[in-house]
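Shipment paperwork, digital attachment
Item: protein structure file
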Amino acid sequence: MELVLPNDANPLGNILGGKVMHLMDIAAAMAASRHSRRVCVTASVDSIDFLRPIKVGQAILLEAQVTDAARTSMEVRVNVYSENLRTGERHHTATAFFTFVALDEDGRPTPVPAVIAETPEEKRLQEEARERRRARLLRTGRLKDAAGGARTPQAVGGEASAAAAGGGGHPGDRGPKGAGVGGEEPAAEKSR
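Attachment content:
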């Protein structure tokens, strides 16, 4: 959670989109690092749609969850909320899906634990993550379609060849189940 201050805002008094993206990247990096117990770097970000503005004086809350893992990469969903601190009213303002790659001590991609989806919601998120991953690999030419000698995303083994840049390694206290930052209430940490 962070308070939106005037230096974070555009002339309309709304938080800058770049500031929101920066906070989303940090939250996603923390979730990926907690899941893998490694330094993780940003490999890609799917589109971000800003659904509602967040005004100066409101709080911005972020919730990040690892939705799936390949061999060395993880997809992290980040939801953003605004909160009116006087009334407690919250609104969903953005969602994006980030891909992170875990690095070893030498800065090379390294294997990560699988995500164990237990609930119907987690299973749905994992299946959707796998569909997005396949589309990303096709789009970047790292996965051929069925007509060109298909390889499954599992056979490709992560997105280690991605030009990984950015991100950050922030250790947490979650293990292989699927680390998250945020929780049932967007400001709380998830403990499953």
